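Data availability excerpt. The first of two example chains:
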Amino acid sequence: MSVDTEVFDLLKINELDLETELSICSAYYYFYASAASDNELSHNEAELELETYEADLARRIKDEFETKYKGSKPAKKEITEAEVKREYRKDIRWLELKKKELKIQNECKKMNIIAKAFDMKNLSCMAINKRHLYKANKGMLDI
């Protein structure tokens, strides 16, 4: 598992500078949520490309099956969908498209998780700030 140390460092909270921390959280949230949205579009495009290829591939597999087993004894009626899908894994182009789709899907998930982490950081900063204000009002904290 690889950890993006840059993001990890950005998610750390500097309690001595909560104003800055609070002011940048929304910008980072927007940046990563926007990146997630862009990746989601790319994922949808990759998924459509894969599905289009699968439809063509399924037709070719079924045609090959019919040609191969036409007139054979005992006659096999037709190829099942499960058998067709297993045949996909033998196709190099399908494997490439599937890997591409999964990689983009993974990036999309990562960006969404990072955006949510900045939202959580924002909430944490507000809670810390509230705690500091409470202590300051009670005379328990030197500001």
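And the second chain:
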Amino acid sequence: MYNTIPIDNLHDLLHKIKIMNPNYEIVIDLTIEELLKSLKSHLQECIQKDEYLVNQFIQKIKEKYDIEINCEYEEFECEYCISHTREDLEYDNEEFCCYVGGLIKELWKDNNFYRFSFSYNYYKDPKYKDLELEF
């Protein structure tokens, strides 16, 4: 009734799931330890790729603009929160917005990376550092 596909490692599993017909049954010929080891390795590769893409994004913006950029990983949201301190670029510079949008498409969208936010952060803007903000 079902066709079976042999799976040698997690990468193979993930690749074959993408092209799989719903009538296929997954057969994993790995021990739990081997599967976990493969999963850990794959996750480390994903994290390294994500960090590389984020660093490329930040580096390319810094090469073109005099700008301070902060990056924090938000564990609850599982996303990279990237912010800058140039209010003038965020609101008054169409070229900056187009450049950043192009980088987002080139580096992230084309690599299926969507776990990020990028915006101006007035909390870290030096011109507002002496201003007390109450919430």
